[in-house]
Design a protein that fits this description.
Layout (H helix, E strand, L loop, with lengths): L1 H10 L4 E6 L1 H8 L3 H15 L4 E6 L7 H10 L3 E3 L1 H6 L11 H6 L4 E3 L4 H4 L3 H10 L5 H11 L4
Parallel strand pairs: 1-2, 3-4
Helix pairs in contact: 1-3
């Protein structure tokens, strides 16, 4: 499946590919070795479509693996999170149970984003407001996330 994704991106003339795998796949396919998972993506990219810029994504379930969270911090990997999408798609039950707070407080760089506005009735402002109203993050924490999101590594 990984190879086919890169072949299709190459055929389609993709220049920048945002792709990733949720942490469950890391356990299932890579024995919880996050480096092996990322190496698989990088090696496949290198062999099939080296000219494509790869932006790797790791799912919010990273919050449930201390090893993955350590890796994210060490490698300065930012997680772009869409809370409403995560809830409506069933990844988490509610804003209050969303792991963004745990990730943020653990020192992982997170950004708050929206997903398809017509499907999820959301935009970035609503995402910030919903996290604030649910008392998931304070206004100060949300502002820090906003400012950090503008920073390049």
């Amino acid at each position: 499946m990984l190879e086919s994704a890169f072949y299709q991106a190459k055929i389609d003339g993709i220049k920048l590919l945002e792709i990733g795998e949720d942490v469950w796949a890391n356990e299932y396919f890579y024995s919880n070795d996050i480096s092996a998972l990322i190496d698989a993506f990088l090696n496949t990219k290198s062999n099939i479509s080296p000219d494509i810029e790869l932006r790797f994504q790791i799912g919010i379930s990273a919050a449930y693996s201390p090893k993955v969270m350590d890796y994210l911090k060490e490698k300065h990997i930012r997680l772009n999170i869409c809370p409403t999408s995560n809830i409506k798609l069933g990844s988490v039950k509610s804003y209050e149970e969303h792991p963004i707070r745990k990730l943020y407080l653990s020192g992982i760089d997170v950004t708050i984003n929206s997903d398809d506005a017509l499907i999820f009735d959301s935009d970035v402002s609503k995402e910030y407001l919903r996290l604030y109203q649910s008392k998931v993050l304070t206004a100060e924490q949300l502002d820090t996330i906003r400012i950090n999101g503008l920073r390049l590594f």
